[in-house]
Design a protein that fits this description.
Helices cover about 50% and strands about 10% of the residues. The longest helix is centred in the last third of the chain and has 26 residues.
Length: about 1000
């Protein structure tokens, strides 16, 4: 069937809508009275309510402008307040009638109450909020022209702020406005105040810094600013005022909401194999039988795109198959309503996002009735990663249904068959296994009693999150299974109440968990003959490795590692969404995600894409790295996977390829590189010294040494990544107190340095969670003693940054404290520099590194300890000579141009830079490459070395192309394939050396 023509719908995104909503939110927040007695109150609920209120008002304005009947009109309230303002402005500020009316307007678009029902802002604040939302000549026409995605973007904009209450007077500085809590600033020592003031958003100069040091009370600062800057520059809020401050809520949630320009092509590519499988002329029934889900809906951009696109296909199918639509009925709107009602599903753990998704779809489809109940059964609130399958609920266990997969199966039969496996990884006793098999056999009744099974499943998850260790979890699970779960299944009300109390703690905890049992929430999807979804599409949260524990708690990390065996603690959260979604697909289904560009890198790849491909998934299209087509400054990948079978054509970064590997590259070798023992103790991360309290300026160091020359022994140069990449001399630019290896009594001999550490470091260490840091407060957090033992007596080492624009190595002075933003290698000869800086190693490092935004993250365990260096490389004269010539030329260029490594390599990769010395450096780099390949014995490849400028514009959305001077793809593929094979041989040889042969 030919592709239906898409309706022309101009995208009218307003860049000021978020600003208007923020101004409205500020107006409402400013209308709440100050309350000094409520300084420690929990403002999270009020913040959530106010953000939701403003967002609902934006949706309501759009609905009213589009002709929806929504009861009382917001414009009527605004007109009434306009009239009151003209008649008596002061009286308007005292009025209290508008707030209940505003809540009623918003409540029409949702079914929950507000924390500020009783006492809210006055009429003046409500008036200013409504005026902010209607700050245009023709509000109806303006709102009618907006895309629904723009309305959801309001929520994104407002999530970037947090509600706070000032402890003392709040200083409002323009422009911004920025609110500085003066009581909080002055609660710190004089030396700390300036830093705190700047961190809060205030602009400092020398005079203000002196005033902060001298101030004894907030009144002193207010008076000083009034005299110096005038009243226009500031205003003062009373103590206990509510203020809205820039925050990190959206970043902490890993959420980046998706613009329509990105969602549309992602959905189209994900649906393409499914629609192709239906043939040229799919019937309406075939189209309406598709089940699509976004497991992290956000504000619904992907579901909106799917509704539009499937609606077009359905309307076309109606025409082609003779379905008559009455002339009075809008066929497109009807098709969208049918698609929304029958095909679309969504999950998100943010209840506000779920509500906004339903509202968006209600407006898009022109549905009748209340938006409160629209799609309530298919767009649900919960954590897509925390839930149990029916077989697990039947066994009252969270153990994975399939050993080694971590993915819950779709039927009790599968669970029963897999639980009988002799190599099952769960730790039950044999009697419990028998019980699990018997209960799994009866688990078909989950469709008949979903509410009861949901309560049991929530309780099982509550047991897991109530304890830290597997032993205690399993003990409580066993007790509950015998004493409570069985009576609950028989309908015992006391047993059910006990389970409910246990589960209630999940949502009420400091780190709430909202379980989501997929088969119970969407029973019709899993009751089909071939159970599961046809399609998953979306933009799951990006949340890098160890931040998961900090944001959601260690037990959440434990849950992921337990339920998805083979996963890694450093994996990005997005990898688990891949695993979960793939497991819930039916055979022949597809998934298409916008995800972090680290999805194909290191531990995240091993957690996500590699298990998918082992389980029969096929990557049929991918973009490895693209700029985010939205407000967030992140890099993303586009990944499309089919579960069993795939389209004939596969595309990688826009090019047709034969296959795509788990690293989102053309497959080169069926081998994952492993760490080699021969590389052990040759590379180290630098020091985590724990805060800036140890740091000294050159002037401070000189003053100490003049007064006490012996204290120079414990003051070392300190080199960080910024020094390394920006200093033309490749040398440290600061100093640090270094008591490494000294007892407290020994450190006390350096009195001046100890006084600084006691003042700056001890207060923070005294409250550190780690006992060792509290007790050894004069030492660094992590001193890296192994590094300094390894380089003791050396005059130089090779260093590279952990994260930088380019993978660069250089020889530097060994007597320095290297920060943990640097990697340090224990050798400094030119042959080693040549190998590491060559494109041979760069190619390996870029393949095995993760990334931070667009920059590679060089982790020695992944990039160096797996790298097979040439045998006897340090004795290879040609390699040493090539490295020395390259090093000398590079240093000469850096000094000549006053550039650090990053600046110089910007010129190196610029095709328009034809300076003779830059050209010489390029030639010497090619010689470096040939020498490194020859040292490996690959003289055939050395003869083919020829770098070329290559543009990566195909994978850069909306930005300038990235240009690199690099090898052709064919040569790079051949080198990487040989390196992988060499790693495999070296690993095998090491195993042979350790494990004796049988019979020996």
């Amino acid at each position: 069937m030919p592709r239906p023509a898409r309706r022309s719908e101009p995208t009218r995104q307003s860049p000021v809508l978020g600003d208007m909503a923020l101004e409205a939110l500020r107006a409402l927040v400013g209308g709440f009275p100050g309350d000094e007695a409520a300084l420690d109150g929990d403002l999270a609920r009020l913040q959530r309510d106010l953000i939701l209120l403003v967002t609902r008002l934006v949706f309501r304005l759009h609905a009213e402008a589009s002709g929806f009947q929504c009861g009382d009109s917001s414009s009527a309230l605004c007109d009434r307040l306009d009239a009151d303002a003209k008649e008596d402005g002061p009286a308007l500020e005292q009025g209290q009638t508008a707030w209940p009316q505003l809540l009623a307007l918003a409540r029409g678009f949702g079914d929950d109450g507000f924390a500020a029902e009783a006492a809210g802002p006055g009429d003046g604040a409500v008036w200013r909020a409504l005026r902010a939302l209607r700050a245009m000549d023709d509000p109806r026409a303006w709102y009618r022209s907006l895309d629904l995605e723009a309305l959801g973007g309001v929520y994104e904009a407002l999530m970037d702020y947090r509600l706070r209450r000032t402890r003392g007077p709040g200083l409002v500085l323009r422009p911004g406005p920025v609110v500085i809590d003066l009581q909080e600033i002055l609660s710190h020592g004089p030396d700390e105040r300036a830093r705190r003031f700047a961190a809060a958003g205030g602009v400092l100069d020398a005079a203000l810094q002196q005033a902060l040091v001298a101030a004894r009370s907030p009144a002193d600062i207010v008076a000083w600013l009034g005299e110096r800057r005038g009243a226009r520059a500031m205003s003062v809020l009373p103590s206990g005022s509510l203020v809205l401050q820039p925050g990190e809520e959206r970043r902490r949630a890993g959420a980046h909401y998706t613009p329509r320009g990105l969602a549309d092509p992602i959905v189209r590519t994900t649906l393409r194999p499914l629609l192709a499988a239906l043939g040229e002329r799919p019937t309406p029934a075939q189209l309406l039988d598709l089940r699509l889900c976004d497991p992290a809906t956000g504000c619904g951009a992907f579901l909106l795109a799917a509704c539009r696109q499937l609606g077009e296909w359905l309307a076309q199918a109606w025409r082609e198959h003779g379905v008559v639509i009455p002339p009075a009925v809008d066929g497109v709107a009807l098709a969208r309503r049918e698609v929304a009602r029958r095909c679309l599903h969504g999950v998100d753990k943010d209840p506000c996002a779920v509500e906004l998704t339903r509202l968006s779809l209600w407006l898009l489809t022109g549905a009748e009735g209340s938006p409160r109940t629209f799609m309530a059964e298919v767009v649900r609130c919960g954590d897509a990663l925390v839930g149990l399958a029916p077989a697990q609920i039947a066994a009252f266990s969270w153990a994975p249904c399939a050993p080694g997969s971590g993915d819950c199966v779709h039927s009790p039969e599968d669970a029963r068959a897999r639980s009988n496996s002799p190599d099952s990884r769960n730790s039950w006793h044999s009697s419990e296994r028998e019980r699990a098999r018997s209960t799994a056999a009866d688990s078909r009744d989950w469709l008949d009693s979903p509410e009861r099974e949901r309560r049991i499943g929530d309780a099982a998850i509550a047991v897991f999150f109530a304890h830290d260790g597997d032993r205690r979890r399993d003990e409580q699970r066993g007790r509950l299974a015998r004493a409570t779960v069985e009576p609950a299944r028989r309908g015992d009300p006391e047993a059910l109440a006990a389970l409910d109390r246990l589960a209630a703690g999940l949502a009420a905890s400091a780190l709430p968990v909202l379980p989501f049992h997929w088969q119970l929430e969407f029973p019709a999807v899993f009751a089909r003959d071939d159970p599961g979804f046809d399609c998953f599409v979306g933009n799951p949260p990006f949340f890098w490795g160890n931040r998961i524990s900090r944001a959601f708690g260690d037990r959440y990390r434990d849950w992921l590692l337990r339920c998805y065996p083979g996963s890694h603690g450093n994996s990005d959260l997005a990898a688990y969404f891949l695993r979960r979604s793939f497991a819930l697909l039916r055979r022949g289904g597809t998934l298409g995600f916008v995800t972090t560009n680290s999805i194909a890198e290191a531990d995240t790849r091993a957690t996500g894409l590699e298990p998918l491909l082992r389980a029969g998934g096929v990557v049929y299209e991918a973009v490895r790295s693209a700029e985010w087509d939205g407000s967030a400054s992140v890099r993303v990948a586009h990944v499309f996977v089919a579960k069993g079978g795939a389209p004939d054509e596969r595309r990688l970064d826009g090019e047709v390829v034969a296959a795509i590997g788990a690293d989102l590259r053309r497959p080169r070798a069926a081998w994952t590189a492993v760490r080699l023992r021969e590389r052990a103790e040759e590379s180290y991360k630098g020091v985590d010294f724990g805060g800036t309290g140890f740091l000294l300026t050159a002037e401070q160091r000189d003053e100490i040494v003049r007064a006490a020359p012996h204290e120079g022994e414990c003051i070392w140069p300190v080199m960080n990544a910024s020094n390394f990449t920006s200093s033309p001399q490749l040398r440290p630019e600061g100093f640090i107190i270094n008591f490494t290896g000294l007892t407290l009594a020994e450190a006390e001999r350096y009195g001046r340095c100890m006084a600084i550490v006691r003042e700056r470091v001890l207060p923070r260490r005294a409250v550190d969670k780690r006992k060792a840091r509290r007790e050894r407060w004069w030492l660094y957090n992590e001193a890296c003693s192994g590094l300094y033992r390894a380089i003791a007596g050396k005059t130089a080492v090779i260093v590279c940054p952990v994260v930088a624009k380019y993978v660069t190595f250089a020889r530097v002075d060994a007597r320095a404290v290297f920060t943990n933003a640097l990697n340090v290698f224990t050798f400094a000869d030119h042959a080693s520099l040549a190998v590491l800086q060559s494109r041979v190693h760069e190619l390996w490092a870029l393949t095995h590194s993760s990334s931070l935004r667009a920059d590679p993250r060089y982790n020695p365990s992944d990039c160096f300890e797996t790298f097979p260096l040439p045998e006897q490389w340090q004795r290879y004269d040609a390699l040493a000579q090539a490295g020395q010539r390259y090093d000398e030329c590079r240093r000469r260029c850096m000094l000549q141009y006053g550039l650090g490594l990053t600046g110089l390599y910007n010129r190196f990769h610029d095709p328009d830079d034809r300076a003779p010395d830059v050209g010489e450096l390029r030639q010497l780099h090619a010689a470096l490459d040939r020498a490194a390949l020859a040292a490996h014995g690959w003289t055939d490849l050395a003869a083919r070395v020829e770098a070329m400028f290559r543009s990566r514009a195909a994978v850069e959305r909306g930005g300038r192309p990235t240009i690199r001077l690099e090898w052709p793809a064919a040569l790079a593929d051949e080198v990487l394939g040989r390196l992988l094979a060499l790693n495999q041989r070296r690993a095998a040889a090491e195993r042979e050396a350790v494990i004796p042969r049988r019979g020996s």
